[in-house]
Amino acid sequence: MPSITRLSADALAQKLRSGEVTSVEATQCHLDRIADVDGKINAFLQVSADDALATARDIDARRAAGETLHPLAGVPIAVKDVVVTKDLETTAGSKILEGWIPPYDATIVERIKVAGLPILGKTNMDEFAMGSSTEHSAYGNTHNPWDLDRIPGGSGGGSAAAVAAFEAPLAIGTDTGGSIRQPGAVTGTVGVKPTYGSVSRYGLIAMASSLDQAGPVTRTVLDSALLHELIGGHDPRDSTSIPDALPSLVDAARQGATMDLTGLRVGVVTELHGDGYQAGVLARFDESLDLLRAMGAQITEVSCPHFPYALDAYYLIMPAEASSNLAKFDGMRYGLRVEPTSGPVTAETVMAATRGIGFGDEVKRRIILGTYALSAGYYDAYYGSAQKVRTLIQRDFADAFAQVDVLVSPTAPTTAFKLNEKLDDPLAMYLNDVATIPANLAGTPGISVPNGLVDGLPSGFQILAPAKADDRLYRVGAALEAALEKQWGHPLIADVPELV
Amino acid sequence: MATKLVAYDDAVKRYDPVLGIEVHVELGTKTKMFCAAEVSFGADPNTQTTPVSLGLPGALPVVNGKGVEYAIRIGLALNCSIAETCRFARKNYFYPDVPKNFQTSQYDEPIAYDGWLDVELEDGEIFRVEIERAHMEEDAGKNTHVGGADGRIQGADYSLVDYNRAGIPLVEIVTKPIEGAGDRAPEVARKYVETLRDIFRALDVSEARMERGNVRADVNVSLRPTPQSPLGTRTETKNVNSFRSVERAVRFEIGRQAAVLDAGEKVVQETRHFHEEDGTTSAGRIKSDADDYRYFPEPDLVPVAPSRAWVEEIRAALPELPAARRRRLLGEWGFTDVEMRDVINAGAIDLIEATVAAGATPAGARKWWMGELARRANADEVSLEALSVTPAQIASLESLIADGKINDKLARQVLDGVLAGEGDPAEVVADRGLEVVSDDGPLLAAIDAALTAQPDIVEKIRSGNLGPIGAIIGSVMKATKGQADAKRVRELVLERIG
Amino acid sequence: MSAGATTLARMSTLSRDEVARVAALARIDLSDAEVDRLAGELDVIVESIARVNTLDLADVPATSHPLPMTNVFRDDVPTPPLPVAAVLAAAPASEDGKFAVPQILGEE
Q1: All chains having 3 or more CB pairs closer than 8 angstroms to chain A
Q2: The domain over range B440-497 is classified in CATH as 1.25.40
């Protein structure tokens, strides 16, 4: 039997059900693994060992008492620090929230607790989820388990690295422009951005309200489906939560694993394939297209002519919404309060000093950009135009999905780059999200599936589906995963260095 | 430094005032506009909060459907069109009592727009005020300034913030420029706000208590040389929180702006503060960069698109509005127009209606509330409602008179007892022994004594001159401490003299 | 498109003063060095993202919500409030059940 930490969540859940392993054992194994390797990875900002073990004991007792439990009950999970957890420090990777103990739980955390998954701790991230490398965390960067000198992607680098380093079988991420999928691609893990509104945002510290969406980070497609079903579904506390029930995702993943895609129409997005993409990444991508074809899929090329403008629209809408969402961090009600070093001490000057000290460079950059884009005289040309481009991107998707069932592209244009490589070039950093952003603007779902190594580093295969058709991601994702693993003889993640 | 003023009468002779009034009303919903925190007056600080109303990270707003319904009610009562679809927006500005540092409001898509309200002035003239819009938004928290002088902002050492009020639903009603009011502009302003208050109460959307800040007005005033001239620069006097203050603020601004214009200077576009103690306004903030509110559609909320069926349902269920009610009561009560106007101006219409409902005649109810009770309220400088007597008690007082149990003079003594908290009129009559003496025995004794004491008057009466009979009756009344029925005394005197 | 082109020309410079003005509006103290750096960086970013205005957007409606939904309302029923003690425990300063904040200049 492989080490407990090497098991997928589904495999671990089966062993918990059969009584082969207890949740306390499973939780302790993961806590030990964190103790062993997280000094090198820095995936966790907080480890909540006592609470996790208490949950595990409770689940073991309930299971022993014959209670019917959630399929994932007892399987440990890590939660990105942008998600509010009652009585557990939540900082969103920012100094301005250092020490903040929330008095309430996010809806998805409530659901995780009700289902009985021990929460191992909170994972590192770019401050307020702003970044593509986790280098913008106020609490140090996270290292990529495949190469400790490289970034784990961002903003959810902590969740992806924790899962890739076997510190947790499951993790929660959030994806505003690719923050689940891009880290998934560069760490060889699976990451899903669900349809906007299908997973509650209540308790997610908002970056851009109309783009943010929480989703699963796992090592297998099936695990993502299991976690997605757990956290998804209507929430009356989120006005943008969709009331419709989604098709079964777990069934779709199991169906996909049979490797039959007969009749499936797959569109390769012309605009997300070519210039700016690393040759090896494209090579792996094209090889996977052959695998899809071999499973019966029809591959065509589809143009989405406005996708080249998606990044521009995104960098107007996201900062604009973020500038307003982050206004609440002012040192008056919670978090850091800093007095100015000179001049009068007033509410006004304390707010400005607190925000000047409490926010990091990237956050300041985006708040100022967003404030500028919304300010008098610029609104129409910036925010207003961006909202119109958003309509054009939605139309591109609608036109494309009239021709094909799913769209595909490489998830990120390159494999993980070196730490500090792009830190001083914001625009280059932003380009990491070029393939993931369109789905956020349109509200449509996307998945990144491990797609093989390029010079020893993982790359990702992105699948995009129409809104509310998240099941297609799982069907196609599981099929590709199965075909690739058959080819390799083992999951990609088995190649990750031992670290100890 | 005293502000230069032009005498009001002079100012309105030479300048034409134009008003704009923004009224905020706090809706009387059970919970806040965007979260389920309970709303009740007088709760301990910060005991009515949720993550949403405290602006905690991660919190999300959800619209209170009742708040939308109340806003539509107000819109319909103000003869507005109700938007087919409208959105909330964020008004971004930093202030400690605004927990998110933006106010969720409506910007370019109000729920109600293009309406009007007829306002009845003191003399019965109807003045129509055009309504630009009514939109939904949320209230801010409350700051208390600690240290410094008298709790004002200036000089305070620090402030304490209570977020109980933060998030209470507000509807803001904005007029179009109010033109043509001329020298009656201050009265129009006051009557407009009063009329709105009455409508809010009739619609049951708010307690609409000015003294609790349920209704707050911002008053814009500008002057121009003639009604044909383009609009002048306006000032906005903020948070004018009583009817009288609305009138005084407009009056003061007209005099002040006239002096500025007379001196050949320009009126500064600014917000101004009203000072209750002397009825003046003083300069506040000049319009600046901080007014760049960076409005954008609230992404955490979806559009409000009231179906036409819903709007019609709300319209059909609208209660009778004050103006219609006044017309109805005028017919039912048979008052003259002047009497009715006096009743309205005295704020006695509800009291009279309740008194009539409790069994009094309209004339009887009016007599009491507009007469004796008005005098007493006036003497004590309180409102009629503030008197410690209920319409039911007045109705019972009236019925005691009608039954001959007491007379008018005794009734005033009974009222004294009621006002002194001695109980209902019947109890006061019993406890004080104020009932009319209707037993002939004691009366005849008193009459005989009076006749014996005044033989000359008896002679006159016998000779057919009934004039002096009043003197005899007076003596009897005096002897019986006013508890005799004067009519009966007269009958008995005539009987006695033969 | 001519209007768009002139807008673009005006927009493509983000001066130091503009950055300082916007930072004040966003209530963020910036050092002189930060203003200098941000002016340079934002100028490049703004120039890039202003490309959205090269599209013909005249007849395109704006999208502010990714999925079309309307009328999401809550019943007017209270839920228990947050405990005051927990709420104030997280505050930098409090007094008498209220949040204590530095003196407020300006006005409501």
Answers
A1: B, C
A2: no
